Amino acid sequence: MVTVIDGRNLIHGRLASVIAERIMDGEEIVVLNAEAIIITGTKDKVFAAFKQKVDRGDTTKRKGPFYPRRADLLFKRCVRGMIPWTSTSGREAYRRLHVFVGTPKQFQDCEKEKPAEACRKITGKYTTLGAVSKFLGSNVR
User: 101 in a domain, yes or no?
Assistant: First the structure.
């Protein structure tokens, strides 16, 4: 069974930890609207943290680690850090996660879920994963 989660206005780390637990339990999950996932903190600090991760890999010499720039891949990379990636069970769980920017046609009429753990009232400063992606130079909006 496939669970469809709408990522609009959900908190990045909380959503990633909920999804990591569920894919490790064998559930297949599809996340929609990855560009609208919220990252709390001041915009400058969030942008600097992601920029530092992207700059860590040297693409001219083909030396990693290579960090993604697209919003959907940024979210997948966050979930990847929360599962045992080096084990077989972690790799299989990672294959059960599908993340999309926007909403594809096949998921428009589906019933969408919003995990209660990731829904919090935002009282401070925040930015979206789409804004971070745009800052990093992604062409996918």
Answer: yes
